[in-house]
Every structure is written in C-alpha cells, then in structure tokens.
Amino acid sequence: MRPSFLPAVLLSLVLPLLPVSVTSAQTVRPIAQQSIRAQRPVSAAKSNENLLDVAVSDSSTTYLVFGGPVSLVDVGMAGNYLVKIEANAVFVRAKRKNAPPTPLLIRYGSKYWMGRLVYSNRPVLQLYDFQKDGALGFSNSSSAGSVPENQLAMDKEQELKSDVEGKLTKLRKVKEEHQAVAVIDNDLVLSLANVRNDKEFTYLRFKVINHSAIDYNVDFTDFQLVENAQKKFLAKKKNEARRPLAPSGGAANQTITGRTTGYLTYAIPLYAATERGYLEVTLRELNGARVLVLPVPSRVINRASPI
User: Fold this and answer.
1) Which UniProt keywords are given for this protein, alphabetically ordered (predicted)?
2) Claim to verify: residue 144 and residue 261 sit in the same structural domain
3) pLDDT of residue 230
4) pLDDT tens, residue order, the chain (307 aa)
C-alpha cells in the first residue's frame, strides 16, 4: 500500500497550492502595471508645472533675451504664433486672439531653454531676460513693459555700433532722393527717402506720412530679400526664395504722431540681388493692425552711392 499511498498524499498536498500561486501571479502583475501607469502622468504633470509661462499678445511683441546667440526656436503650435530671431533675442507675437498655449524650445549657444507660450490680452511683462544661465532675471533694462535699448544691434560690438549709428546720422541729413518708391495704405504713406552702401551694410532711410489722427508706433521692422519674384498667371513662381535680413542698426519703437511726417533709418547687412529680386520692408504697428509692406527694387540698392 505504500507505493499507492505516497502519490495520493503528495498529490493532495500539491493541488491546493496551485490555484494560490497562479492567482497571486495574476493579481500582482496588474497592480504593478497600474502603479507604473499612475506614476507617469504625475511626473509629466510635475515637468509641465516647472515650465515658465511667457505671456504673448496679438497686438504687441514679447521679447526673450538670452546669454548667447539663438540658433533654433521650435514652437509646438507654430501656426498660432509669429517668431523672429535677432542675434541673442527672440521676438514673439500671437497671430490671433486667444491662441492656445504651446511649448517653446530655444537653443542659444550650446544650451537649451524650454518654456510655454500663453496668450494674454495685456501682458504685464513684455521683456524676459534669461541672460543669467537661462533663469529669469530683472534689471534696469528688463523692467515690465520695456524693450531692449537697441534690440536691432544687440549682437554688434560697441565700436561697430558707433560707426553704423554715425553713418545713419549722416543719412538723416541728406536730401530725399527716391520718392517714387512708395506704398499707400490706411491713411499712411511709406516711401524710400535715401539709400547708401558701404563694405558691410546698406543704410536705408524711410519717410512715413501719417494722414490719420492716430499715432503710428512702429513695433519692429522686417527685412526680407526676395529672389526669383517673377509671377505666373494668377500664381507666384514656385522657386521664389525669401531670406530674412536682420537689422544691424537703427532705433526701435519709433512713433509717427497723427497728422505729421517722420523718418525711420536702418542698417542691414550688405547683399547683392539680381534684377528679379527686391527688398521687402514690412512695418508692424504696436497695439494696432496697420501693417505697411514696401518692395524696394534691387536696382535702387545695387546702384546706391557709397557712404
């Protein structure tokens, strides 16, 4: 009886253990998975909370200044925001009201900075100074609502700045020469008054006639070199090329009061364009929607006198 008794005893001892071990394995695994899944949103939420919100409006420009030259700006929802790089600064403006929040990644020098763009009808702070290790700082030049003293020339050495500004001062004293290059829109007239070249820069002086009763406050001016601009019937040529030109001199946030005439002067890097190319100059208004776009033919710049 021993041979038949031992297997029966062993079987009776082993069988009760099997359901317990299988059940415990099935129970522990979902709990572990649930704990991992529960931890991921928490960590993601914490990382999102650490991102700094940068307030952006559709009627004014927000400035971000870093401690090195900016080489990359990546906006999560790029279609809702206008972004422009100027040396170690980034200019941001919302394209429409109530634009949704979006992440913002910026590479300056060999470092990266990440934040979040958030729409605000009236941003309290319009200049974000990240020049100290990417951390937001406040100084005399970065108080709320202010802009850099000369953001158009932040990447230039002081000696070069002085030389450029000196030549712009000379240009302001020259008699107007190119009144035919002009555009009229919204009771405003924008025309090219003078242009000069040296070995490094093109110096431009524009005339703005404000026929309206409302002041025209120039937020910032865009310059783009347009090539292969010949148009087909009802369409632009497919291989049209555009290249932005960062201004290297000139004062920002200039105001042309109502019913008056004013002049704007800028220096841009020297370039050579073909007969099918032109310089597109765009003036954007602070706290307003009156945008002026002036095409300057390449021949006018190519034949300009030296300064």
Assistant:
1) Plasmid, Signal
2) no
3) 63
4) 455 544 554 445 444 444 443 333 333 344 334 433 434 444 443 444 567 889 898 877 888 999 889 999 999 888 889 898 888 889 998 988 889 999 999 999 889 999 999 998 877 777 888 888 777 765 433 333 333 444 444 444 566 778 888 999 999 999 999 888 999 999 999 999 999 999 989 999 999 999 999 999 987 788 888 887 665 544 555 567 777 777 777 776 789 999 999 999 999 888 877 888 899 999 988 888 899 999 999 999 999 999 9
The per-residue pLDDT for range 121-144, each reduced to its tens digit, is 877 777 888 888 777 765 433 333
Phi then psi for residue 68, to 5 deg, are -160, 170
Q: Are residue 93 and residue 183 in the same domain, yes or no?
A: no
Whether 256 and 273 have beta carbons less than 8 Å apart is answered as no
- Per residue in 90-119, is it b (16+ CB within 10 Å) or e — as a string? bbbbbeeeebebbebebbbeeeebebebbb
Q: DSSP string covering 133-172, please?
A: TTEEE--TTS-TT---TTGGGTTS-HHHHHHHHHHHHHHH
How many domains does the chain contain in total? 2
Angle at which helices 17-49 and 2-14 cross, to 10°: 20
């206008």: which residue's tokens? 82
Q: Return d(Cα 214, Cα 218) in angstroms, integer.
A: 13
pLDDT score recorded for residue 137: 65
Q: Which residues contact 19 (CB under 8 A, 6 or more apart)?
A: none
Residues 136 and 237 in one domain: no
* Sign of the torsion angle spanned by Cα atoms 135, 63, 73, 273: negative
CATH code, 298: 2.60.40.1150
Count of all residues that appear for the chain in the document: 307
> Strand, helix or coil at 39?
helix
Q: How many CB atoms lie within 10 A of CB 191?
A: 17
